[in-house]
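Support reply, case 0932

Customer input (verbatim):
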Amino acid sequence: MKQKLKVIITGASGMVGEGVAQVCLENPDIEKVLVVGRRPSGLVHSKLEEIIIPDLMDLSQIKEDLKGYDACFFCLGISSVGIDAEDYYRTTYTLTIKFAEVLAGLNTAPVFCYVSGAGTDRSEKGRIRWARVKGKTENDLTQLGFRKVYGFRPGFIRPIKGLSHTSKYYRYVKWMFPIGRKLYPTGFCTMEELALSMIYLAKNDFEKQVISGLDIISLAQKEKA
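Our regenerated output:
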């Protein structure tokens, strides 16, 4: 019998979080999905519980609601384009670490899957600011005591049908997915593959901490097998 999972998902009011949540809700191996966010996700399902909290920096009032979960799929994030450096750092690094610290202190060694992105810089010394911040976030998450921490680095993600938060950019360039996947598979994955690879890692240990595009595809195939 396959292990039934209870998972926490953040960022479900955005494309990646909504897509991951939708796949999880439809997966028979997922027993419960808790969505935590600042805005309603719009998702409706019998397995779904949702907590709306305006300030994700302060989880003191919902600590008890976060206990007993097997994994957190942290999909919350913003683009660095046009964002003040301090605001980007606060949302990308500080918020993520504060949220993770609470989970690490409440649960018994859950798995933490963090969606960073292709190009993330774990050396923290590169020229690209967002890549350094994402790299620092990945690095510091590994120090919090989770059973496993995985930094997911997808490139182009093909959305699944029915999402409410797909950006117009993806709608206009989705035609290129089959070509890109054939020429450069590590840079192209589907939303289903991203979610399934997270589900697989919530149940199975993996030797890598950084999960690239090819890893996402391979792990998703294992989960489906």
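We compared this against your earlier run and they match. Two observations from our side: The chain has seven helices and nine strands. The two ends are 14 Å apart (CA to CA). Please reopen the case if you see a mismatch on your end.
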